[in-house]
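Work Package 3 (structural annotation) set out to generate three-dimensional models for the target panel prioritized at the project kickoff. During this period the team completed the workflow that converts sequence records into discrete structure tokens, so that structures can be stored uniformly alongside our sequence database. As a representative example, we reproduce one entry of 307 residues exactly as it appears in the project archive.
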Amino acid sequence: MTTALISHDDCLDHVTPPGHPEQVARLDAVLGALKGFDLLRVKAPLAAEDDLLRVHPKAHVDNVRDAAPAEGWRSLDADTHMSVGTLQAAYRAAGAAVRAVDLVMSGEAQNAFAAMRPPGHHAERETAMGFCFFGNVAIAAKYALDHHGLERVAIVDFDVHHGNGTQDLVEEDARILFCSTHQSPLYPGTGAADETGVGNVLNVPLPCGTGSKGFRDAMEQVVLPRVDAFAPQLLIISAGFDAHRDDPLAGMELTTEDFGWVTERLCDLADKHCDGRVVSSLEGGYDLPALGASAAAHVKVLEERGR
């Protein structure tokens, strides 16, 4: 058994306007930090149309495709921009999440990390937003249920921003548990504790300046017990590292070590309930040194569990 690292050079062709935080250098920072790791390195496939349609209506997929520019940029909102290479990268990012599920469900890998961009957790059913075009982890969860015959999949999102898109895509499916810790108030303004879906959504909004103790307490006292009670057959992580104290877009004040710690705790639950099967997908993280170090701390734990 091993840990799979799924990526693709096409994701470097998703070029955002100068000064945009979701930049090509993010993926360079992550992959550079993982160079010395002993991982099964896999090229991300393009997502199949049927997999995108598990969570998005055809009109949304068509709209994203039609918005792809032949040159320069096209802006879908103030934050979300498409370059010539964006559409291909977005299809690769979704495809990587699906490929990760196949790798861990087949036993070819114990766990997998999709080091991809653009991220996905803000993409709603019919709306690309917050740097995101397709709901990568929601697509992976639905695929695991429908294609691999699972009955319960848990998604844990520790990005500093609420995964409004993931919530929108899964909140009516009781087979999927969605748990999110996030800074509040902060973009996108969703994720209140009373947003509970059909009883399958757990939001834990945390104030600016929460720090390591507050984050770990929230995980140990609220999130981890809920995942434990759900007893998932597969655990999917939305791995955003923008809660780091050096990140310019928020103020959660976490440390690199916190990301290793939470990965350990989540892997403990995966060992207990789903034979260690974990799929992780990169979300945010915008200070390049902090992003690289945090991703390395996360994947180091996955690598150790994959041996």
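Residues 123 and 134 are 5 Å apart (CA to CA).
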